[in-house]
Description:
By secondary structure, the protein is an all-alpha fold. It has 3 domains: about 1-40 and about 45-60, no CATH class; about 75-115; about 115-205, no CATH class. About 60% of the residues lie in helices and about 5% in strands. It has 7 helices and 2 strands; from the N terminus they run H-H-H-H-H-H-E-E-H. It has helices spanning about 5-15, 25-30, 50-60, 65-75, 85-115, 120-150, 175-200; strands at about 160, 170. Helix 6 (about 120-150) runs antiparallel to helix 7. The protein is globular and about 55 Å long. Keywords: Membrane, Transmembrane, Transmembrane helix.
Amino acid sequence: YFHFHLIEEKLESFFRLHSKGSAEQKGEMDHTSNPLTSRDGMFSDEPIPAKLAFIHGLIAGFGFGAFALILYLVIVPTMPGPLFAFLPGLLFGLGTMAMQIMFGAFFVSVTRRAGKLSERGISFVTSRITMSVLLYGGIAFIISGIGVLLYPSLMNIGFTTGIRVHNLHNLGIGFFLVIFSVGIIGIASFIESFRKAKELGLVERKERVPETT
Length: 213
């Protein structure tokens, strides 16, 4: 399908994820190599550079979503002065970070205890879930976007819950897209990745206790 990597190339060069024109960059741009796999075709558990999280934060924070608009147009103007304008964004970021730490720790703990996966196995499962949610969830959003452009009445599909909370009062196509992407695709990917991790032997190795006579 038609697409281009101009922004991706610029970001990779700026943050030095790949050297410009390198074999690694060319392989990813041509879709002949997968950053989730190593050169021998097996799963690569090389740590993801922390700078990628910073890039993601810049992209996530720049937008016109519901929460971003509430921060920009409602909460920030209520600050006592320009010097305090950064506080809502800072607290929002700290809250997001705290929840990610708690959910991440809970997920790793449950996965390790229930499935006896090794650290490499957990990394494999989480990477596959992320890849599936972004890929298939992105496709679902693209299809729905095209559908809304062709048939604007699709935006009216939904129901009212009566809960007087933003984003919960009226559940429409956006809500169901998130449920499909994160819920259905995420759970299905978790089950499949969990099974694949065990097939690859990415489980904890129990040390054999020598027998005593």
